[in-house]
Amino acid sequence: MWRRLSWILVALLALGLGEGPPPAPQGCRPYPKANYPQDSFGTPLKPGEVGGSSSPEGTPRLALDKGRARMAVDHCALRMPEAGAPRFGQVGLAYPKMERQNGRVVHFRLLPGDIQQPNGVAVGAFPEAHPADPLKGANAVALDNFDSLAGTFNLGFRGGTRPTLLPQFQTPLDVYVLLREQGAVYLVDGLKGGYYAAPPSASVLGLDQTLSFGEFYPGAHSSSTLHAHRLEHFQVRDVAAWSRWYGTAHAADRLTGASTAGLGQAEKGGRWQVRGNLKRGAQGTRADAMGGMALLEPGAPSGVLGLRVRTGARPQGVALIFRARSPRDYYAFVVSSEIAQAVRVRGGEALPLQQTQAAEFLLRQNATHHLQVIDTGSRVGPFDKGGKIRLYLDGQLAFVLGDDPQSSPEFDNADAEAGGVGFEIGEGVAGGTVLSRFEAHPREVALPDELRLPEPFFEERGDVVVASDRFDGPAGPLEARRTPVGGLAWEKRSPPDPKASLALLGNGQVQPAPPGGRSDYLLYGLRWPEAYRRFASLEATLTPPGQKGGYNAEGDCTGYTQANREKRLRAGFFFWQDAEHYLIARAFTDDSQSNASEIEWQAPVGGALDVIRRVNLGPRLCHGNPFHLRVSFDGDWAVAWVRAPGSPLEEPVQAFRWSDAFPEQPPLKIQMVGLVFSEEDSGTRLDSFTAWGSTRLR
């Protein structure tokens, strides 16, 4: 590593570019004064000073500060340091105790440090200020490890953790925990083009129908052992638009009422369409021995559904219905005392997609159960989160449709946009099952004004093309070529070996020459104009070396073969201020990680080039398959987007701040940008390069 760095240092020191004064750090924007808890983290605090302090808006902070270092506030964010071991109960920040009520929302904006390690960060409403197990008995959302690839969300539940299996990259997001008299609704938003809605909308992740502890502590708790998590905003707001018991639901009904009354009008979502003899009562709705069905049409598809079930000595089976087009066309989660099933009903004919007779997924006598559905809807591209349905009984995951085609080959994700929802009680002993608290939430909701923060996420992509090169023309050296747009000259900066170069292939691509076997990093750069030194966004299409792989039914890359064993992708972009301050973002695949790829970020640390952040992209980068990479950097914020093969959109896959890794350093002033190929790269081809500046960031 030292030898590698020495070439880069010599080359870039020779640039003769003056460092110049760094841009002033961006000022922190406080919340307006109000009578609710809030924290803008606008006043810097040294490590160890967070405990006993208050927010700039006057809310006391209750700190648990036993990590490897002490908590601090810098660059308008709380720094939650690495825990000494991968467990909670060491690092946390809570705020004074509050009362639960309908429509009260705990809201955090956070930037995850690392969620590829066991455990992560949990935010929400907790019965204790600093719980040892934050999700047990809490209305909270945790970002956690997902098969060592990326992150996922787990939800607080009465008995512990409830997995959603919903994915999340290491990008900034808002988490909202909407409390109700019983339970909570969990929502998130994030960067445009990501898995979830972007402000001013939010995606509904899941719900809890069981917890009702009256007093709670808003808080955030970390167990990360690798990188610090950052909290950027906190508030608790009472949202009038969400103040009914069902919160954000677009179809809901307690299903109670005067004895023997029909269903009639639902509390939310219109009038029930009923088949059979269903009657309301003080405890809920029941059916006679013939059973019955009820449907609502809220006007949009539902993403999260819930239903409470109370059984007698001889329970009737029950179904939670979704994606309904009619009483003869729908999906259902069916549970009885004998079997549990995921069912597709088409033309009145029921087709079981998955089923089990495991005792934990059956109705018990004289018991209370909760059925829930998480439906991610349509699937757009191979890596979209859509196309999967999760079915839960009492917080335990019973079925997943869409994850493994072999487990439910008949599942085709049909009618993903059908909006009908409802329930059915099966035949049996009259009144054997009583239903209550039916709710169905849309996949996305509009954020009320109370929850919209004054500062948007950083996702600048630029508005001025400073340089662009399609690498057309005959084969030959890239050095000294001027970009057709912008007229900037390509300069070879490393290594000094004249045999190592970047060459035009004559087909609109460039490639290292020779393709492999170099002694150090190969860097070709463009001197960045003074007018745009505070921002650059670079994009290009990269084709990893090796025989072209495909994607199998499970979505895995088939390029990890013996023939491709030594074919490595190690290419990307660099942003340069001087020999001691620069950032490299490189895409990464090889045979060391079966069916996995990465984006790695490197910078000089203590005189040597080191990896400061990385994110696992799963099989998105696959041998021989072109993918699009874009990286934006304003000297502090860095964001990477990837458009994988077959995907229609650029996905934001990682974001972090230079100040997260180097809190004592000012933002970089970009002097040069360009292309980088590590010495291990074995022939990545690159085309369609564009470098953007911004008139908004000067």
From TrEMBL:
<protein>
    <submittedName>
        <fullName>Uncharacterized protein</fullName>
    </submittedName>
</protein>
<feature type="region of interest" description="Disordered">
    <location>
        <begin position="21"/>
        <end position="61"/>
    </location>
</feature>
